[in-house]
Amino acid sequence: DNVIAAAVVIDTIRIAAGLRAAVMTPTRFRYLNRRARPAAHHGADRPTSIGYQPALDGIRAVAVASVVLFHAGVSGLDGGFLGVDTFFVLSGFLITSLLLTERSRTGRIDLRRFWVRRARRLMPALLAMLLGTVVAGHFLLDRDALGLLRTDADGALGYVANWRMIFRGTGYVAATAAPSPLQHTWSLAIE
Fold first, then answer.
1. Prediction pTM value
2. Bridge partners of residue 39, in order along the sequence
3. Which of 23, 86, 149, 156 sits in a 20 to 30 Å window from 32, CA-based?
4. DSSP characters for 81-101?
């Protein structure tokens, strides 16, 4: 059962985070899913959600901090890429969990609805960040760099920043080109 396997992974992550892990029994699983509704087509006793797991927020924070410290040049922290990998694994796990929950509850996955929910959650922050970066770039960058920044913003807005950075020659690990102020938006395109 994928949901039970996911719960075992969550407890493994909790152990790695130094938190108390409980044996994943059906009773424990129902406790984690106290707000979940039974799936109509799979039987009433099948859990439909893993519930909120605070330990995942802690692991995500450690992953983000490792990337920030890596980019800040803190010596001895050469594992910034491990933080990126960890963040993607957690994101993939949570996105897959949402999709499996929807399938368990409704019998199908509505990808259009999933993308609309995702856009509603991410677009306001993305638009504010893009606007602020382009406005700041207007005052801080020369004309050529500002033109590149605007095109980078279009790529970020279209969730294709990863491809834009590759064609621009400033992929995430490129050492020769000047990085874009929007280089971090490649991760939205990957997710």
1. 0.62
2. 43
3. 86
4. HHHHHHHHHHHHHHHHHHHHH
Does residue 87 have a pLDDT over 50?
A: yes
Confidence of residue 76 (pLDDT cuts 50, 70, 90): confident
Average pLDDT for the chain: 75
Residue 189 is encoded by which pair of tokens?
């395109």
Q: Is pLDDT of 187 > 50? A: yes
Q: Per the structure block, which two tokens stand in for 92?
A: 């993939």
Cα-based torsion angle of the residue sequence 80, 84, 85, 91 in order, rounded to the nearest 10 degrees: 150
